[in-house]
């Protein structure tokens, strides 16, 4: 059973607000990832981290930023939310790169 | 091509077998994965197969791997309504650069009672 948690589960906010999506895991995994999922199902990697103080941009350009100050915590921040940011955001972790990913339950973000 | 390919939709009757197919790209992929996503949830690892195996069976699930054709399939026996979900296949890529696992676009399985 995966021990990776995302909050909030659902978030509805107005345009221009700053938001932070939280992701925490208790498995001691060094590798953590953020995916954005289209309504049409496809997953897009937007950020990843190989460990503390490591952050990299993924395959899909995103206006969000991430930080990795602690191993267990990988928050994602949007400085000024827009309707185009409306999506499902999935956090994941793995023990090593290329190994199976464990996913959180996701945050469904709606920006009005 | 560079993408992991899956058909987008599959519809089966309850009790029948479901077969979800996937074509991957990297012949040196070490692991190939199947994930299940239920509505409004994250992805759950369903099963995986190591590249030196041809088949793996786990209760109602059978994974077949054809390395020559880079083809992966997931068979669900006696499909139930609770199996309705989106199924993603994923591969590891040796020279993937930024991407840890590469996912297909997902197959939406609908089970008709």
Helix percentage of chain A: under 10%
- End-to-end Cα distance of chain B, whole Å, is 37 Å
Task: Give the radius of gyration of chain A.
Answer: 13 Å
Report the structural category of chain A. Answer: mainly beta
| Uncertain residue ranges of chain B | none
Q: In percent, how much strand structure appears in the residues of chain A?
A: over 45%
**How big is the Rg of chain B?**
14 Å
Mean pLDDT of chain A equals 92
Largest sheet of chain B: 6 strands, mixed
General shape of chain B: globular
Average of pLDDT of chain B: 90
Distance between the termini of chain A: 35 Å
Q: How many beta strands in the DSSP annotation of chain B?
A: 11
Q: Considering residues with a beta carbon less than 8 A from a beta carbon on another chain, report the largest interface and each chain's count.
A: A-B, 27 and 26 residues
- The count of DSSP E runs of length 2 or more, i.e. the number of strands of chain A, is 11
Overall 3D shape of chain A:
globular
Helix content of chain B: under 10%
Identify the quaternary structure here: heterodimer
- List the secondary-structure elements of chain B in sequence, H or E: EEEEEEEEEEE
Order of helices and strands of chain A: EEEEEEEEEEE
Architecture blueprint of SSEs:
The complex is a heterodimer of chains A (112) and B (113).
Chain A: E1 4-7, E2 10-13, E3 19-25, E4 31-37, E5 43-51, E6 54-57, E7 65-66, E8 76-78, E9 87-94, E10 102-103, E11 107-111
Parallel strand pairs in A: 2-11
Antiparallel strand pairs in A: 1-3, 3-8, 4-5, 4-9, 5-6, 7-8, 9-10, 9-11
Chain B: E1 5-6, E2 9-13, E3 18-23, E4 31-37, E5 43-50, E6 55-58, E7 61-66, E8 71-76, E9 85-92, E10 101-103, E11 107-112
Parallel strand pairs in B: 2-11
Antiparallel strand pairs in B: 1-3, 3-8, 4-5, 4-9, 6-7, 7-8, 9-10, 9-11
């Amino acid at each position: 059973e995966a021990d990776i948690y995302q909050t909030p589960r659902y978030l509805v906010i107005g345009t221009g607000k700053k938001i932070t999506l939280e992701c925490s895991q208790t498995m001691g995994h060094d590798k953590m990832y953020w995916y954005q999922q289209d309504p049409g199902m496809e997953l897009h990697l937007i950020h990843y981290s190989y460990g503390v103080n490591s952050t990299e941009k993924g395959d899909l350009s995103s206006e969000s930023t991430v930080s990795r100050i602690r191993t267990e915590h990988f928050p994602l921040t949007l400085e000024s939310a827009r309707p185009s940011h409306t999506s499902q955001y999935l956090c994941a972790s793995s023990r090593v790169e290329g190994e199976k990913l464990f996913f959180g339950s996701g945050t469904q973000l709606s920006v009005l | 091509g560079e993408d992991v390919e899956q058909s987008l939709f599959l519809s089966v009757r309850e009790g029948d077998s479901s077969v979800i197919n996937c074509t991957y790209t990297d012949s040196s992929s070490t692991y190939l994965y199947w994930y299940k996503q239920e509505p409004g949830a994250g992805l759950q690892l369903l099963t995986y197969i190591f590249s030196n195996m041809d088949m793996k069976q786990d209760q109602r699930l059978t994974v077949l791997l054809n390395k020559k054709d880079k083809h992966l399939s997931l068979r669900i026996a006696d499909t139930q309504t609770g199996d309705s979900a989106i199924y993603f296949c994923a591969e590891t890529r040796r020279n993937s650069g930024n991407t840890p696992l590469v996912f297909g676009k997902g197959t939406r399985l609908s089970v008709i009672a």
